[in-house]
């Protein structure tokens, strides 16, 4: 049975828990750095300077190994973009990237396993589960893949934020003939209920 990968989204306060997580991230990064895999070493060298990057080494019962990256995406403060948002922690979107280690039969340019990850709170605004990831082209490395992905996600997040105002204006327009809503979502304007006399 293998070890599972976790993307840590920790509080900015330096509690004992966050210090432990920092040490764990450093330990995992050291383990990954010791892996004898040319492709993996190259991939790490191209993105290691990215702030917030996390790496995790997984070992399995059949002695196979894989490395998982949690790559933070989008250099924007999503919290400040949503008026009245209840989020206490900084919301981020991560790309989870999984590389098998030392499998010589795999092409050096073959695509890793890719998955977008975010907190459940952010999914109320923008669900990464519905995102179709761009194709991984032959011979591509992670540093080449990320810019197109981030450009696409930025447009999607900005559109999701703009739709909040569209929904609010629509609700305000309905308030004229229907009266004030008896219940309304004050943040995302997703669920609104009017009382209509029959």
Automatic annotation (TrEMBL):
Ligase keyword on record: no
Residue ranges that the Swiss-Prot or TrEMBL entry lists as coiled coil: none
Subcellular location: Cytoplasm; Nucleus
Pfam family, one: BRE
Primary location: cytoplasm
Biological process, per Gene Ontology: cell division; chromatin organization; double-strand break repair
GO terms under cellular component: BRISC complex; cytoplasm
UniProt keyword Cell cycle present: yes
Keywords: Apoptosis, Cell cycle, Cell division, Chromatin regulator, Cytoplasm, DNA damage, DNA repair, Mitosis, Nucleus, Repeat, Ubl conjugation pathway
InterPro entries listed in its UniProt record: BRE
Assigned protein family: Belongs to the BABAM2 family.
UniProt-recorded name of the protein: BRISC and BRCA1-A complex member 2
Organism encoding this protein: Trifolium medium
């Amino acid at each position: 049975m293998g070890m599972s990968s976790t993307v840590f989204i920790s509080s900015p306060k330096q509690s004992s828990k966050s210090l432990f997580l920092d040490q764990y991230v450093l330990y995992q990064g050291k383990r990954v750095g010791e892996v004898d895999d040319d492709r993996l070493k190259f991939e790490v060298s191209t993105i290691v300077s990215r702030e917030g990057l996390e790496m995790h080494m997984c070992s399995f019962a059949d002695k196979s190994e894989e490395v998982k990256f949690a790559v933070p995406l989008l250099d924007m403060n999503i919290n400040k973009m949503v008026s009245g948002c209840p989020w206490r922690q900084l919301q981020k979107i991560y790309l989870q990237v999984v590389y098998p280690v030392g499998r010589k039969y795999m092409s050096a340019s073959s695509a890793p396993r890719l998955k977008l990850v975010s907190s459940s709170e952010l999914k109320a605004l923008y669900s990464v589960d519905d995102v179709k990831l761009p194709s991984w082209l032959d011979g591509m490395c992670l540093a080449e893949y990320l810019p197109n992905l981030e450009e696409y996600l930025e447009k999607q997040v900005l559109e999701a934020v703009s739709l909040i105002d569209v929904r609010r204006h629509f609700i305000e327009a309905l308030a004229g003939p229907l009266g004030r809503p008896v219940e309304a979502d004050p943040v995302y304007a997703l669920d609104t209920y009017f009382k209509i006399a029959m």
